[in-house]
Design a protein that fits this description.
16 strands, Rossmann fold, 10 helices, binds aspartic acid, 8-stranded mixed sheet, alpha/beta, elongated
């Protein structure tokens, strides 16, 4: 690919943004590059002049993001790593359903990236009446040309959010993403964009580029389940999930500030799984705020069972971090240390138990 450092590389992976109608409903389409270039060429001259030139890559076949797996995250990181140095930034067009998972995973794989990687998509295809696609894409392209943005972010519905802090929050509304525990990195509309520089990773901990691209293949077969506890959960159910040999780690979503039933059998299963070297972490089922798992007696059992505090991480950021750490040749102590350390601004504190 020719190197032109002022262009933005667009990587199209599928999703509603580029879908077309079929007899079975919306399906991803392979001709989105032509359709989007045609659309951008038809914009009013003042709008068009604010956009960077683009170069295009697409993953084949384009997919509905509900089909994405850790291998897709790995493949995308490889594409970005291979090409980003030749461009001002990268825009990844992606389905919204698992966009926050991909963004979180990319943040760990592209640690220290020194330019923007902006994920976006749309709630309606580009050509649909009142689609949000054009606004989202235009904003994403403009943020991807900002040298002050040096991390993986999601641009959607007028907001720029840290990728590893974001969640899909709405099934239908245009402002479909939220970042419950970290403020937006930027905002904008078709007339202008604004980066809140003091919130960016480069203002805090970016450091030198140190891309980490381990092979996720060994974890692709469901090795890191996500378990949401409910009142009435029994030890046999946890046992079925956690003591399976294929499981290498798990995220537990517990109550409030970090509580679980004080049932010795449940805590015993957790301790056994931890004792087998499985990496277990806990976050709260509340979307806002952090766990503090030693605060109530009902949470102390988690610490005794070796469960790590996930602080105020999203489920997406916590599961993808477990996968990222388990895919690397690290000993258990180092994995635990890194899990408790903010690597890409995905958690607020490095303390909090474990
Ligand atoms: N099912 C679609 C996807 O995630 C939804 C979307 O793009 O909004 O690919």
């Amino acid at each position: 690919m020719p190197s032109n450092p002022s262009t933005v590389l667009v990587i199209y992976t599928g999703g509603t943004v580029g879908m077309v109608e079929s007899a079975d409903g919306l399906v991803p389409s392979r001709d989105f590059e032509q359709r989007l270039r045609h659309h951008l060429a038809g914009l009013a001259p003042d709008q068009r002049s604010r956009l960077p030139d683009i170069e295009w890559l697409q993953t084949d076949p384009p997919i509905d993001s509900s089909a994405a797996t850790p291998s897709d995250w790995q493949h995308l990181a490889a594409l970005v790593a291979e090409h980003y140095a030749h461009h001002a930034g990268v825009v990844i067009l992606h389905g919204t359903d698992t966009l926050a998972w991909t963004a979180s995973s990319l943040a760990y794989q592209l640690q220290g990236i020194d330019r923007p990687v902006v994920l976006s998509g749309a709630m309606a295809p580009l050509e649909a009446p009142h689609s949000d696609a054009s606004d989202n894409i235009q904003m994403a392209l403009r943020f991807a040309a900002q040298p002050g943005l040096q991390e993986v972010a999601i641009c959607f519905g007028g907001q720029l959010l840290r990728g590893a802090r974001s969640r899909k929050w709405q099934t239908h509304q245009a402002a479909a993403f939220a970042s419950p525990n970290y403020p937006p990195l930027g905002a904008g509309d078709r007339d202008g964009i604004r980066l809140f520089d003091e919130r960016g990773l480069n203002a805090h901990q970016r450091g030198a580029p140190r891309l980490e691209r381990p092979d996720y293949a060994g974890l692709a077969a469901g090795s890191v389940p996500r378990l949401v506890l409910w009142p009435g959960i029994r030890a046999w159910q946890l046992e079925a999930w956690l003591l399976d040999d294929r499981v290498q780690g798990a995220l537990l979503e517990v109550w409030g500030g970090g509580n679980v039933p004080q049932d010795p059998e449940i805590l015993g299963v957790l301790a056994r799984a931890s004792g087998e070297g499985k990496l277990l972490a806990a976050i709260s089922q509340c979307p806002h705020g952090a766990v503090n798992i030693g605060h109530y007696a009902a949470g102390c059992g988690l610490i005794d069972a070796g469960v790590l505090s996930g602080d105020d991480m999203t489920p997406e950021a916590a599961v993808t971090k477990l996968i990222h750490l388990l895919a690397q040749p690290l000993d258990n102590a180092e994995r635990r240390r890194r899990f408790l350390t903010p690597l890409v601004g995905e958690r607020s504190a490095s303390t909090g138990g474990g």
